[in-house]
Design a protein that fits this description.
- The protein is mostly helical.
- It has 4 helices and 2 strands; from the N terminus they run H-E-H-E-H-H.
- The chain is globular, with a radius of gyration of 14 Å.
């Protein structure tokens, strides 16, 4: 993750600020709906799951590698050394007008 993902990079900030509103608007529109959302994408980027959580009771990350899932689980369980995804959560909360 450290090799290919620079945590303070302008790319990440730009991706979140541009993509979160897009994903949020898609889910808010009602065009994408259901009980289960299955993601078959590869990679460590899960920022779209923040707006999806408001519209799906189950989200399955099926295409990610075992390493990507392990990184996400480390963050979820607040384990030492986990990649910090709080920037995505913060960006989404700000988008929603929450803190």
């Amino acid at each position: 993750m450290d090799t290919y993902l620079v945590r303070d990079s302008a790319f990440i900030d730009d991706a979140f600020t541009r993509m979160l509103p897009v994903f949020n608007n898609i889910f808010m529109s009602g065009c994408v709906k259901g009980e289960v959302l299955i993601d078959l994408a590869y990679g460590p980027f899960f920022e779209w799951t923040f707006p999806a959580c408001d519209y799906f009771s189950d989200i399955i990350l099926g295409g990610s590698t075992d390493k990507c899932i392990a990184e996400l689980e480390k963050w979820w369980k607040n384990e030492p050394g986990a990649l910090d995804w709080s920037h995505a959560a913060k960006a989404f909360c700000e988008l929603q007008g929450n803190r």
